Amino acid sequence: MANSLHSLYNWSLDQLSQDLMPTLFVGHGSPMNGIENNEFSLQWQQLGKTLPRPKAILVVSAHWLTRGTHVTAMDFPETIHDFGGFPKALHEVQYPAPGEPTLANWMQEHFSNPSIHTDHEWGLDHGAWTVVRHMYPDARIPVLQLSIDYHQSPAFHYELGRQLGILRRKGVLVIGSGNMVHNLRMVAWDKLAQPGFGYDWAIEMNAFFKARIADKRHEDLLDLEKMGNAGRLAIPTPDHYNPLLYILGMQGSADQVSIFNDRLVGGSLTMTSVLMS
C-alpha cells in the first residue's frame, strides 16, 4: 500500500518508543459538531495543533457495536453518515483519510485474548470523523476504528484497553469517542441553549466520574450496578460509556489527567472529555 505507515514514516511496528503518545476520551455529542465551529469543536482543533502528530489514529467509537472485536483494515475507509434528520451539508461531508492495513493486521496477529478481527466493510462513523476532521483537517494521518463487543462487561473493555496501551509506544493516538452521561430520552430540547443546565442526577454523575478519574479509582467506574439510580439514568445503555473504559485502561502511572469540554447539554448529556499525557 502506497500510504502505509512503513512508506510514510519509515516506522517499524516492532519498535517501541520511550515516549508515550497521549490518549483521549472525547464527548462527541451531536453529529452537528462535525461541521460547526463551537466551543467543543474549537477545543478539538486546538488539540490537533498542540498534541504530538501521530503516525496513526485508532478510534473506539460508541457507534460501532459488534459481537467480537473488529478493526477496520481497508486502504481507504468510507465516511459513514450513520444518522438521520440532519442538514444536507452534514450528509455531504467526506473525510478521506487513508486506513492502515499494516497496523490492523499487526493487531490481529498480536492480540489473542481477546482476538481482534480485521474488517473491510465498516469505515469511519460519526463518532470518529466528526472529531478527527477538526483535529486533523488535512486528512493525511491514517485512521482506523475499533469496534465495541456489546456483549462484554465493563471489565472486559477496561482490560482490552490496558492491552492496547502498547500502541501509545508505537506513535498511535487512541481516541475513545462517546459521552459519559448520555440519556437521549431525557434531553430537554427547549434548554439546549441554556449553559450549565443539567438534571440533578446528571450533575451528580458527572462529578462522580471526574472525581474517580482524577483519583485513579477505576474500579468504581467498572461496576455500573453500584452507581445506583443516578448511574442508571446517566448510562441507560453502555454504548457511549464503554469508550471511556478503553482510555482509562491505557492510563500510565506518570500520566497527567486534564478535563476539557466539561459541559452539560440539554440536561442529560455531558461533553466532558479527558486527556491523558
Please provide a written account of the structure.
The protein is of the alpha/beta class. The protein has a six-stranded mixed beta sheet with strand order 5-2-6-1-10-7, sandwiched between helices. Strands 3-4 form a two-stranded parallel ribbon. It is globular, with a radius of gyration of 18 Å. The protein has one domain (5-182, 216-263): Protocatechuate 4,5-dioxygenase, Chain B (3-Layer(aba) Sandwich). It contains nine helices and ten strands. Mean pLDDT is 94; it is low at 1-10. Helix 7 crosses helix 8 (228-234). The longest helix is centred in the C-terminal third of the chain and has 15 residues, at 200-214. InterPro entries: Extradiol_dOase_DODA, Xdiol_dOase_suB.
Low-confidence stretches: 1-10
Report the radius of gyration as a whole number of Å.
18 Å
Shape: globular
Number of helices: 9
- Quick one: biggest sheet? 6 strands, mixed
Give the count of structural domains.
1
Provide the spatial order of strands within the biggest beta sheet: 5-2-6-1-10-7
At the fourth level of CATH, the homologous superfamily is LigB-like
Query: What oligomeric state do the depicted chains represent?
Result: single chain
CATH class: Alpha Beta
Q: At CATH's second level, what is the architecture?
A: 3-Layer(aba) Sandwich
Structural class: alpha/beta
